[in-house]
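Our preliminary data section would be incomplete without showing what the modeling component actually yields. Below, a chain of 358 amino acids is followed by its predicted structure, encoded as tokens that our downstream tools consume directly.
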Amino acid sequence: MRRLDPWLLLAVVAIAACAYLAQSSTAKALATPGFANRQIVWLAVGAVLMVLFSFADYRVLARLSPLFYVVTLGVLLALFVVAPARAGAQRWLTLGSYTIQPSEFARVVTILAVAAIAGEHQQSRLDFKTAARLLALTSVPAILVMLQPDLGTALTLGAILVAALWLGGLPWRTWVALVAAGVVMVVVAWLWVLKPYQRERILTFADPERALYTSGYQQRQSKIAVGSGGVTGKGLHSGTQSQLRFLPAQYTDFIFAVWAEETGFIGAALLLAAYILMVFRIFVIALSARDRVGAVFAGCSGFVLATEILINVGMVTGLAPTTGITLPLLSYGGSSVLATCISLGMIQSIWRLRYANV
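Predicted structure:
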């Protein structure tokens, strides 16, 4: 364990502690203690996975990434056949009383596959062929995830491509072309891809008074919760918005609102400091990696985690539209916790092997 990065471990432990406290509060509000108990189990299993992947060789996993990638696409395709529809979406596989969201693991596999391709490219700048391969590699799972539909996870898969192209040294003219293509894709998505409720969320964000008691209700209650926390908060298990159930989805996408109301500005700032430390150490590990595979994997993982954190906190505080992106390690959900811990374990492997000669 001495060869692992202690600061990254410290950040993860701090976030996990906050996760348990926050989930215990939502469990009390919803009279379902299983939420907090299951979350601590997922965190414990995630810790074991993180240690196991820390002592694995990320380079071997990268060589196996084509196999992982094909299997992942097969599972995402199978969801449209075998997954039950829940709230109009087919995102989960059911195993007894548990559900698995394959798109969370697809994100890790996609980052690994992108890192493996980037490792084959030895020039200082990406050529067109490599950039096209990266685009195809990220687009296929992103499209499958969007069709589930799951816009939030699809956006994070797009973040992988942005990070990989930036780390690969894409010429500025190509960036201009990509931005133009992105604008076209946004227009196409708005007209033909996004579901009506997804478009309504964006319109409500642009005009908060548009639907105060329908699509805008969740975000409105979230902002009230964050603001009512004040400096020191109302105390654990004492937040009115959560305990009186004014705040829907409080244990998943909007868990940060629960934490901010009960611990106030101080607690929210400490939690965000732990996230900043985690992302900062990931980027430090990316810079110290012994090869391009490690650098790209850590860099893309750090960028995706930062994107999730920024969008989720922005969503909770009313600075971004509601997209369904969870807060890493804090939001309830075994798939998200386990996938995040696997990524963190591989990042620790990159740190551990940074001076390896073989």
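The chain is about 70% helix and 0% strand. The mean pLDDT is 86. Preliminary results of this kind motivate Aim 1 of the renewal.
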